[in-house]
Amino acid sequence: MKKISNRKKGKSFAVNGQRNWKRSVKKQMPFYLMMAPGLFMITLIFYLPMPGVILAFKNYKPTDGIFGSEFINPLFKNFEFFFKSDTARIVTMNTILYNIIEAVLVTVVAVALAILLNEVKNKYVSAAYKGAILIPTFLSWIVIQYILFSFLSVDRGIINNVLGKFGIEGIQWYSEPSKWRAIMPLAYLWKNVGYYSVLYVAAIAGINTDYYEAAQLDGATKWQQIKFITLPLIRTTMIVLSLLWVGKLFNGGLGDWNAFYTLPNDAGALYPATDVIDTYVFRSLKKINDYGMSAAVGLYQSTIGFALVLISNKIIKKIDPDSALF
Protein backbone atom coordinates (compact mmCIF):
# COMPACT_ATOMS: atom_id res chain seq x y z
CA MET A 1 0.00 0.00 0.00
CA LYS A 2 2.89 2.35 0.84
CA LYS A 3 4.54 1.65 -2.53
CA ILE A 4 1.31 2.44 -4.37
CA SER A 5 0.83 5.68 -2.42
CA ASN A 6 4.45 6.70 -3.11
CA ARG A 7 3.92 6.08 -6.82
CA LYS A 8 0.77 8.20 -6.76
CA LYS A 9 2.65 10.97 -4.96
CA GLY A 10 5.46 10.77 -7.53
CA LYS A 11 3.00 11.01 -10.40
CA SER A 12 1.19 13.92 -8.78
CA PHE A 13 4.49 15.78 -8.27
CA ALA A 14 5.42 15.18 -11.92
CA VAL A 15 2.02 16.38 -13.13
CA ASN A 16 2.15 19.46 -10.89
CA GLY A 17 5.69 20.20 -12.04
CA GLN A 18 4.64 19.95 -15.67
CA ARG A 19 1.67 22.22 -15.07
CA ASN A 20 3.86 24.77 -13.27
CA TRP A 21 6.38 24.66 -16.12
CA LYS A 22 3.64 25.28 -18.69
CA ARG A 23 2.24 28.15 -16.62
CA SER A 24 5.72 29.65 -16.30
CA VAL A 25 6.36 29.39 -20.06
CA LYS A 26 2.97 30.92 -20.82
CA LYS A 27 3.60 33.73 -18.35
CA GLN A 28 7.08 34.47 -19.73
CA MET A 29 6.11 34.05 -23.40
CA PRO A 30 6.27 37.82 -24.21
CA PHE A 31 9.87 37.88 -22.94
CA TYR A 32 10.77 34.79 -24.98
CA LEU A 33 9.33 36.44 -28.08
CA MET A 34 11.35 39.58 -27.38
CA MET A 35 14.46 37.46 -26.99
CA ALA A 36 13.85 35.40 -30.16
CA PRO A 37 15.22 37.90 -32.78
CA GLY A 38 18.44 38.43 -30.82
CA LEU A 39 18.87 34.71 -30.25
CA PHE A 40 18.30 34.05 -33.94
CA MET A 41 20.93 36.61 -34.96
CA ILE A 42 23.46 35.26 -32.44
CA THR A 43 22.92 31.73 -33.73
CA LEU A 44 23.14 32.87 -37.35
CA ILE A 45 26.25 35.02 -36.95
CA PHE A 46 28.25 33.23 -34.25
CA TYR A 47 27.23 29.57 -34.07
CA LEU A 48 26.37 28.46 -37.60
CA PRO A 49 29.79 29.52 -38.99
CA MET A 50 31.66 27.63 -36.24
CA PRO A 51 32.29 24.49 -38.37
CA GLY A 52 34.40 26.78 -40.53
CA VAL A 53 37.26 26.46 -38.01
CA ILE A 54 38.16 23.31 -39.91
CA LEU A 55 39.82 25.68 -42.40
CA ALA A 56 42.71 25.95 -39.95
CA PHE A 57 43.70 22.40 -40.87
CA LYS A 58 43.01 22.54 -44.61
CA ASN A 59 44.56 23.83 -47.79
CA TYR A 60 41.51 25.90 -48.70
CA LYS A 61 40.59 26.39 -52.33
CA PRO A 62 37.50 28.49 -53.16
CA THR A 63 36.63 26.13 -56.03
CA ASP A 64 36.46 23.13 -53.68
CA GLY A 65 34.73 24.85 -50.77
CA ILE A 66 35.35 24.42 -47.05
CA PHE A 67 34.55 20.72 -46.78
CA GLY A 68 35.80 19.80 -50.24
CA SER A 69 39.32 21.16 -49.68
CA GLU A 70 42.02 18.70 -48.65
CA PHE A 71 43.52 18.51 -45.18
CA ILE A 72 46.99 19.96 -45.07
CA ASN A 73 50.02 17.84 -44.27
CA PRO A 74 51.41 18.24 -41.64
CA LEU A 75 48.10 19.07 -39.95
CA PHE A 76 49.35 22.13 -38.03
CA LYS A 77 51.30 23.68 -40.89
CA ASN A 78 48.95 26.68 -41.09
CA PHE A 79 49.93 27.65 -37.55
CA GLU A 80 53.63 27.87 -38.44
CA PHE A 81 53.12 31.13 -40.36
CA PHE A 82 52.35 33.03 -37.18
CA PHE A 83 54.50 31.28 -34.60
CA LYS A 84 57.67 31.27 -36.72
CA SER A 85 57.41 34.95 -37.70
CA ASP A 86 59.88 37.42 -36.16
CA THR A 87 57.17 39.81 -34.97
CA ALA A 88 54.88 37.17 -33.37
CA ARG A 89 56.28 37.87 -29.90
CA ILE A 90 55.95 41.66 -30.30
CA VAL A 91 52.34 41.64 -31.52
CA THR A 92 51.34 39.07 -28.88
CA MET A 93 52.81 41.20 -26.10
CA ASN A 94 51.15 44.32 -27.55
CA THR A 95 47.79 42.53 -27.63
CA ILE A 96 48.03 41.41 -24.01
CA LEU A 97 49.46 44.69 -22.76
CA TYR A 98 46.83 46.90 -24.41
CA ASN A 99 43.96 44.73 -23.23
CA ILE A 100 45.19 44.74 -19.62
CA ILE A 101 45.73 48.53 -19.64
CA GLU A 102 42.36 49.16 -21.26
CA ALA A 103 40.55 46.79 -18.88
CA VAL A 104 41.98 48.43 -15.76
CA LEU A 105 41.65 51.98 -17.10
CA VAL A 106 38.09 51.59 -18.38
CA THR A 107 36.89 49.80 -15.23
CA VAL A 108 38.33 52.38 -12.82
CA VAL A 109 37.12 55.41 -14.79
CA ALA A 110 33.71 53.87 -15.58
CA VAL A 111 33.04 53.01 -11.93
CA ALA A 112 34.15 56.49 -10.84
CA LEU A 113 31.89 58.12 -13.46
CA ALA A 114 28.97 55.91 -12.47
CA ILE A 115 29.32 56.89 -8.82
CA LEU A 116 29.50 60.57 -9.75
CA LEU A 117 26.48 60.30 -12.05
CA ASN A 118 24.54 58.57 -9.30
CA GLU A 119 25.12 61.60 -7.08
CA VAL A 120 23.47 63.91 -9.65
CA LYS A 121 19.90 64.09 -8.36
CA ASN A 122 18.42 66.24 -11.12
CA LYS A 123 17.19 63.71 -13.69
CA TYR A 124 17.52 66.10 -16.63
CA VAL A 125 21.10 67.02 -15.82
CA SER A 126 21.91 63.36 -15.21
CA ALA A 127 20.40 62.37 -18.56
CA ALA A 128 22.40 65.12 -20.31
CA TYR A 129 25.64 63.88 -18.78
CA LYS A 130 24.89 60.26 -19.71
CA GLY A 131 24.05 61.23 -23.27
CA ALA A 132 27.24 63.29 -23.57
CA ILE A 133 29.56 60.49 -22.47
CA LEU A 134 27.67 57.96 -24.62
CA ILE A 135 28.05 59.86 -27.90
CA PRO A 136 31.62 58.62 -28.64
CA THR A 137 30.41 55.02 -28.30
CA PHE A 138 28.31 55.41 -31.44
CA LEU A 139 31.13 56.89 -33.51
CA SER A 140 33.07 54.60 -35.85
CA TRP A 141 36.83 54.34 -35.53
CA ILE A 142 37.14 56.01 -38.95
CA VAL A 143 35.47 59.14 -37.58
CA ILE A 144 37.63 59.02 -34.47
CA GLN A 145 40.70 58.65 -36.69
CA TYR A 146 39.92 62.00 -38.35
CA ILE A 147 39.23 63.64 -34.99
CA LEU A 148 42.55 62.34 -33.67
CA PHE A 149 44.36 63.42 -36.83
CA SER A 150 43.02 66.95 -36.40
CA PHE A 151 44.85 67.05 -33.05
CA LEU A 152 48.03 65.18 -34.01
CA SER A 153 48.68 66.28 -37.60
CA VAL A 154 52.29 67.45 -37.86
CA ASP A 155 51.49 70.49 -40.03
CA ARG A 156 47.90 71.41 -39.20
CA GLY A 157 47.30 69.64 -35.90
CA ILE A 158 45.80 71.59 -33.00
CA ILE A 159 48.46 70.43 -30.52
CA ASN A 160 51.44 71.34 -32.71
CA ASN A 161 49.87 74.71 -33.57
CA VAL A 162 49.47 75.50 -29.86
CA LEU A 163 53.05 74.40 -29.16
CA GLY A 164 54.26 76.59 -32.05
CA LYS A 165 52.64 79.68 -30.51
CA PHE A 166 54.81 79.15 -27.43
CA GLY A 167 57.93 78.65 -29.53
CA ILE A 168 58.03 74.89 -28.91
CA GLU A 169 58.95 72.60 -31.77
CA GLY A 170 56.10 70.40 -33.02
CA ILE A 171 56.03 66.67 -32.24
CA GLN A 172 56.24 64.09 -35.02
CA TRP A 173 53.32 62.07 -33.65
CA TYR A 174 53.13 59.59 -36.53
CA SER A 175 56.79 58.60 -36.40
CA GLU A 176 57.31 58.16 -32.64
CA PRO A 177 55.94 54.74 -31.52
CA SER A 178 56.51 55.32 -27.78
CA LYS A 179 53.83 58.03 -27.59
CA TRP A 180 51.20 55.70 -29.06
CA ARG A 181 51.41 53.36 -26.10
CA ALA A 182 49.52 56.09 -24.24
CA ILE A 183 47.45 57.43 -27.16
CA MET A 184 45.83 54.08 -28.00
CA PRO A 185 44.48 53.31 -24.48
CA LEU A 186 43.30 56.92 -24.05
CA ALA A 187 41.47 56.82 -27.40
CA TYR A 188 39.83 53.51 -26.43
CA LEU A 189 38.89 54.97 -23.04
CA TRP A 190 37.27 58.05 -24.61
CA LYS A 191 35.19 55.93 -26.97
CA ASN A 192 34.05 53.16 -24.62
CA VAL A 193 33.98 54.53 -21.07
CA GLY A 194 30.46 55.92 -21.54
CA TYR A 195 29.03 52.50 -22.39
CA TYR A 196 30.61 50.79 -19.38
CA SER A 197 29.73 53.63 -17.01
CA VAL A 198 26.05 53.30 -17.95
CA LEU A 199 26.22 49.59 -17.08
CA TYR A 200 27.61 50.45 -13.67
CA VAL A 201 25.02 53.21 -13.21
CA ALA A 202 22.32 50.58 -13.75
CA ALA A 203 24.00 48.31 -11.19
CA ILE A 204 24.20 51.12 -8.62
CA ALA A 205 20.57 52.08 -9.26
CA GLY A 206 19.58 48.55 -8.24
CA ILE A 207 21.04 48.95 -4.73
CA ASN A 208 18.43 49.33 -2.01
CA THR A 209 18.46 52.92 -0.72
CA ASP A 210 17.84 51.62 2.84
CA TYR A 211 21.55 50.76 3.07
CA TYR A 212 22.54 54.37 2.44
CA GLU A 213 19.90 55.76 4.79
CA ALA A 214 21.10 53.47 7.59
CA ALA A 215 24.71 54.45 6.91
CA GLN A 216 23.83 58.16 7.05
CA LEU A 217 22.10 57.65 10.40
CA ASP A 218 25.29 56.02 11.69
CA GLY A 219 27.29 59.03 10.53
CA ALA A 220 29.05 57.41 7.55
CA THR A 221 30.72 59.80 5.11
CA LYS A 222 30.19 59.64 1.33
CA TRP A 223 33.52 57.89 0.87
CA GLN A 224 32.61 55.30 3.53
CA GLN A 225 29.26 54.68 1.81
CA ILE A 226 31.03 54.16 -1.50
CA LYS A 227 33.68 51.91 0.03
CA PHE A 228 31.46 49.72 2.19
CA ILE A 229 28.13 49.75 0.29
CA THR A 230 28.43 50.74 -3.37
CA LEU A 231 31.61 48.92 -4.38
CA PRO A 232 30.81 45.60 -2.62
CA LEU A 233 27.27 45.53 -4.06
CA ILE A 234 28.37 46.12 -7.66
CA ARG A 235 31.15 43.55 -7.37
CA THR A 236 29.18 40.92 -9.30
CA THR A 237 28.78 43.28 -12.28
CA MET A 238 32.49 44.10 -12.14
CA ILE A 239 33.38 40.39 -12.10
CA VAL A 240 31.16 39.56 -15.08
CA LEU A 241 32.62 42.43 -17.14
CA SER A 242 36.13 41.42 -16.05
CA LEU A 243 35.49 37.88 -17.31
CA LEU A 244 34.53 39.36 -20.68
CA TRP A 245 37.82 41.25 -20.71
CA VAL A 246 39.73 38.07 -19.87
CA GLY A 247 38.01 36.26 -22.73
CA LYS A 248 39.26 38.85 -25.23
CA LEU A 249 42.76 39.15 -23.80
CA PHE A 250 44.30 37.70 -26.97
CA ASN A 251 42.11 39.71 -29.33
CA GLY A 252 42.39 43.28 -30.52
CA GLY A 253 39.31 44.08 -28.45
CA LEU A 254 35.60 43.23 -28.72
CA GLY A 255 35.31 44.31 -32.36
CA ASP A 256 37.68 47.23 -31.66
CA TRP A 257 40.75 45.83 -33.37
CA ASN A 258 39.85 48.36 -36.06
CA ALA A 259 41.22 51.00 -33.70
CA PHE A 260 44.70 49.55 -34.03
CA TYR A 261 44.38 49.50 -37.80
CA THR A 262 42.81 52.92 -38.43
CA LEU A 263 44.05 55.29 -35.70
CA PRO A 264 47.78 55.08 -36.54
CA ASN A 265 46.85 55.97 -40.14
CA ASP A 266 48.78 52.90 -41.33
CA ALA A 267 52.09 54.56 -40.45
CA GLY A 268 54.73 51.82 -40.76
CA ALA A 269 56.97 53.49 -38.18
CA LEU A 270 54.30 52.88 -35.52
CA TYR A 271 53.92 49.12 -36.08
CA PRO A 272 56.18 48.14 -33.13
CA ALA A 273 53.82 49.97 -30.75
CA THR A 274 50.43 49.63 -32.45
CA ASP A 275 50.46 46.23 -34.13
CA VAL A 276 48.35 43.54 -32.42
CA ILE A 277 47.68 39.98 -33.56
CA ASP A 278 44.60 40.92 -35.58
CA THR A 279 46.20 43.78 -37.51
CA TYR A 280 49.42 41.87 -38.16
CA VAL A 281 47.56 38.87 -39.53
CA PHE A 282 45.20 41.05 -41.57
CA ARG A 283 48.04 42.89 -43.25
CA SER A 284 50.07 39.74 -43.81
CA LEU A 285 47.25 37.61 -45.17
CA LYS A 286 45.95 40.42 -47.36
CA LYS A 287 49.17 40.02 -49.34
CA ILE A 288 49.15 36.21 -49.68
CA ASN A 289 45.35 35.62 -49.54
CA ASP A 290 45.64 32.42 -47.46
CA TYR A 291 42.39 31.66 -45.61
CA GLY A 292 43.79 28.60 -43.85
CA MET A 293 46.44 30.64 -42.03
CA SER A 294 43.89 33.29 -41.06
CA ALA A 295 41.58 30.61 -39.64
CA ALA A 296 44.51 29.08 -37.75
CA VAL A 297 45.35 32.32 -35.96
CA GLY A 298 41.65 32.93 -35.23
CA LEU A 299 41.34 29.45 -33.72
CA TYR A 300 44.47 30.05 -31.64
CA GLN A 301 43.05 33.31 -30.26
CA SER A 302 39.62 31.82 -29.54
CA THR A 303 41.01 28.72 -27.82
CA ILE A 304 43.29 30.75 -25.55
CA GLY A 305 40.47 33.18 -24.76
CA PHE A 306 38.05 30.37 -23.90
CA ALA A 307 40.65 28.69 -21.68
CA LEU A 308 41.32 31.97 -19.85
CA VAL A 309 37.59 32.44 -19.17
CA LEU A 310 37.35 28.91 -17.72
CA ILE A 311 40.44 29.38 -15.55
CA SER A 312 39.42 32.82 -14.23
CA ASN A 313 35.87 31.61 -13.57
CA LYS A 314 37.23 28.64 -11.61
CA ILE A 315 39.42 30.93 -9.50
CA ILE A 316 36.48 33.27 -8.82
CA LYS A 317 34.28 30.28 -7.94
CA LYS A 318 36.75 29.21 -5.25
CA ILE A 319 36.98 32.71 -3.80
CA ASP A 320 33.29 33.64 -4.07
CA PRO A 321 30.97 30.98 -5.57
CA ASP A 322 28.03 33.39 -5.86
CA SER A 323 30.00 35.74 -8.13
CA ALA A 324 31.05 33.07 -10.64
CA LEU A 325 29.67 33.26 -14.17
CA PHE A 326 28.81 29.55 -14.28
From TrEMBL:
Keywords: Cell membrane, Membrane, Sugar transport, Transmembrane, Transmembrane helix, Transport. It comes from the Bacteria. The chain crosses the membrane at residues 31-50, 96-117, 129-148, 188-207, 228-247, 291-311. It is a multi-pass membrane protein. GO terms for biological process: transmembrane transport. SUPFAM superfamilies: MetI-like (SSF161098). One of its GO terms (cellular component) is plasma membrane. Pfam families: BPD_transp_1. It is found in: Cell membrane. Residues 92-312 form the ABC transmembrane type-1 domain. The keyword Membrane applies. Belongs to the binding-protein-dependent transport system permease family. This is Putative multiple-sugar transport system permease YteP. The gene is yteP_26.
